[in-house]
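TA notes, week 10

Several of you asked for a full example with nothing omitted. So below is the full record: structure tokens for the whole chain, then the designed sequence directly under it. When grading your own attempts, check the secondary structure regions first.
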């Protein structure tokens, strides 16, 4: 019996990350998957799709050329002109623009909801509402949303719940286990993990994935064969990478919480974090990403980022290299994504940059 023919729980996630998606046949597959560098051959993509679906507990998956493309295609597979989407107001910049500007052009109305508002989702429902979309954990603030009340609402009303869980990945968080119908990931980040290939993935039921796959070809989001090969290679180390990153990020967050130069640490693994209880219930690990607010504000953040030597100033998170990104709000906010370097070395670099 091949790994893909077993139930997802029959094998551990770290085993699925290496062997999941391999289909039957008398010949054993090669240890290193060959690359099929031809646009008409989809072997690499199909293997990775089956593997990710097994890890997430989804019926099917489809790869796309980008994370934003995955978001767009997933929602376009569920919505039609005249439909209404409820979306969390806590969204990354590109997705926020996609929903608030571009969806209006195709006749899909979008209402942004404060996810912490009591009964906020129910209050803004319309008879045309077909889906709810949210991101958790939230980038870059590291807020973790409770899916339980949202999923109860969507199940009650027959709506689709779509969750972007890019910051966590399937090792730390599997939204389908908490009531989500469709999961979106930017494979550019944690899943690939090496800062060298862009992509996205949509996971869910077969009918939704089939619809998204049709739109993928029409909207020019077909993934590059080499990017699929790099993603498959990166997945094999996903579990050990995530374990190390979870551990290092927690150490850094605990250390940073004691520094007078840092006004606030945003990391759900800390007991002081406002979503710690929710994160503990939903997540198997608290993730590689944390945010810090420097007491000196924006000028201190500029100086801090310039002085770092081990943390690269880059946008994509979750990779083997530690990266830092300065954000404008709140004042002095810096996002840190912990890589695989020694935690003591990363802490020492942050300490000298603070001075």
């Amino acid at each position: 019996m091949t790994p893909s023919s077993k139930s997802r729980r029959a094998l551990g996630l770290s085993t699925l990350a290496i062997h999941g998606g391999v289909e039957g046949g008398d010949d054993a597959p090669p240890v290193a998957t060959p690359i099929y560098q031809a646009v008409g051959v989809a072997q690499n993509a199909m293997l990775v799709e089956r593997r990710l679906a097994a890890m997430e507990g989804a019926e099917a998956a489809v790869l796309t050329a980008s994370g934003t493309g995955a978001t767009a295609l997933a929602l376009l597979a569920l919505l039609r002109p005249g439909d209404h989407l409820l979306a969390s107001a806590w969204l990354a910049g590109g997705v926020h623009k996609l929903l608030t500007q571009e969806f209006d052009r195709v006749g899909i109305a979008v209402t942004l909801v404060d996810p912490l508002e009591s009964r906020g989702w129910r209050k803004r429902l319309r008879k045309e509402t077909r889906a709810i979309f949210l991101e958790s954990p939230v980038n870059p603030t590291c807020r973790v949303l409770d899916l339980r009340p949202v999923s109860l609402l969507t199940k009650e009303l027959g709506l689709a719940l779509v969750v972007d869980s890019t910051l966590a990945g399937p090792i730390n968080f599997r939204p389908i286990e908490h009531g989500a119908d469709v999961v979106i990931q930017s494979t550019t980040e944690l899943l690939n993990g090496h800062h060298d290939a862009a992509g996205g993935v949509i996971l869910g039921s077969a009918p939704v994935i089939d619809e998204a796959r049709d739109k993928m070809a029409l909207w020019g989001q077909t993934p590059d064969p080499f990017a699929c090969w790099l993603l498959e290679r990166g997945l094999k180390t996903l579990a050990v990478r995530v374990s190390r990153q979870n551990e290092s990020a927690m150490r850094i967050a605990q250390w940073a919480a004691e520094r007078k130069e840092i006004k606030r640490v945003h990391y759900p693994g800390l007991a002081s974090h406002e979503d710690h209880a929710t994160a503990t219930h939903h997540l198997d690990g608290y993730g590689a990403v944390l945010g810090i607010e420097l007491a000196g504000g924006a000028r201190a953040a500029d100086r801090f980022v310039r002085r770092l030597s081990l943390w690269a100033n880059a946008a994509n998170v979750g990779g083997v290299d530690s990266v830092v990104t300065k954000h404008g709000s709140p004042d002095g906010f810096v996002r840190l994504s912990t890589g695989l370097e020694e935690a003591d070395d990363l802490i020492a670099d942050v300490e000298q940059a603070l001075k």
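The chain has a mean pLDDT of 92. Use that as a sanity check on your answer.
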